[in-house]
Specification:
- By secondary structure, the chain is α+β, with helices and mostly antiparallel strands.
- The chain has a single domain, classed as Nucleotidyltransferase, domain 5 (2-Layer Sandwich).
- Helices cover 45% and strands 19% of the residues.
- Helix 3 packs parallel to helix 4.
- The chain is globular, with a radius of gyration of 15 Å.
- The model has no long low-confidence stretch (mean pLDDT 92).
């Protein structure tokens, strides 16, 4: 079966996502920091997989509504990372497991992780 370029990209993304998620599991002591990135937006959630509940979430849409302005996705990702880390600190969460969700660890995904680390999250 011959795949076109878009189908091939999606296929490899899904393989990376399944491989990554097979090794990660968020617990009460160490929840999962999940990242989703689209072409325009980036989202981050801290999830407890034991309870199946989202503890903290943040997205660039929230940051844009706070009138901080829209910039490059990489810059927005850094702001989202800092925001989710601040919210986690309020909920007394210091350690997380980073789930990049099939996205390569470059650009916006890396910027989000670096900003969260700078704010004090450990992963």
């Amino acid at each position: 079966m011959k795949l076109n370029k878009q189908t091939k990209k999606l296929f490899h993304h899904n393989r990376r996502k399944i491989r990554t998620r097979a090794r990660l599991f968020g617990t009460t002591e160490r929840p999962r920091l999940s990242v989703y990135k689209s072409n325009k937006h980036i989202y981050a959630q801290i999830i407890n997989d034991e309870m199946g509940a989202t503890i903290v979430s943040s997205s660039d849409k929230e940051i844009i509504l706070k009138k901080e302005g829209r910039g490059l996705l990489k810059e927005l990702a850094a702001r989202v990372g800092a925001d989710v880390a601040k919210k986690a600190k309020i909920k007394k969460i210091n350690k997380v497991v980073y789930d990049r969700g099939g996205f390569l660890y470059t650009g916006a995904v890396k910027a989000l992780a670096d900003a969260a680390r700078k704010e004090g999250l450990v992963f």
